[in-house]
Amino acid sequence: MAHATPADLAAYVDPDLLADQTTANLTRLLGRASAAVDDLITEEPEPSVLADLDALRRATLLTVEHVLTVGEAATVTGGGISIGHVSITADATTGGRMSNSALPDSAVRVLRAAGLIQPAIGSAW
Fold this sequence. Notes:
about 120 residues; globular
């Protein structure tokens, strides 16, 4: 389930980024970004806590905005995915969880501020 809708995205990003995008493509990007956010969070969000839901939505929107800004050249491998300049990987050092570098810094900051992720082992706040 996506944490944001195409309408949320239209209200959040520069309209020029959406000019050449179809609703189907935006829905796909939002779904992929939501999955990346879900893979990164270390604390289960509370569905009844609006701040948690807002953090998931904003992190998803920031991730799609980043992809729309840098372009999308997606490749999927067994250990991760790469979309433009965003690379998502999981490895044994993080217990199979995504590293904090899996999303744009802006999205990581939103999730960390909401208490939904902790820094990766050996990383600075």
